[in-house]
Amino acid sequence: MSEYMKIASVSDLPPGQGKVVAVQGREIALFNLNGSFCAIDNTCTHAGGPLGEGMLEGEEVECPWHGARFNVKTGAVCNPPADEGVTAYKVRVNGSDIEIEL
Ligand code: FES
């Protein structure tokens, strides 16, 4: 059964920024998209770059290693060299907590 788990506080992540959060053995890239939060797997499908450290532009994050782009809402790949998307997680805000469904 899936459950929501706290991964950060709303105050941790200003609009336009991302961060990497470790939870239950996974690394999640969490982004603040103009006040709404999105979470995808942190590991780029090209060669394992940390997507949570990439630049956020609109709804897309650019992998800091070789520039592949992923949609932070859906995890879909938008630009090579990656050719496979990443998992996207459901996110909700519960009071001052950001929670994702695992
Ligand atoms: S590791 Fe992400 S584009 Fe190469």
Task: Characterise this structure.
This protein is mainly beta and about 100 residues long. The chain has one domain (about 5-100): Rieske [2Fe-2S] iron-sulphur domain (Rieske Iron-sulfur Protein). Helices cover about 0% and strands about 50% of the residues. The protein contains no helices and 11 strands. It has strands at about 5-10, 20-25, 25-35, 35-40, 55, 60, 70, 75-80, 90, 90-95, 95-100. The strands form 3 sheets. Strands 2-3-4-9 form a 4-stranded antiparallel sheet, with no helix packed on it. A hairpin with a 2-residue loop joins strand 10 (about 90-95) and strand 11 (about 95-100). The termini are close together. The mean pLDDT is about 95. Bound molecules: FE2/S2 (inorganic) cluster.
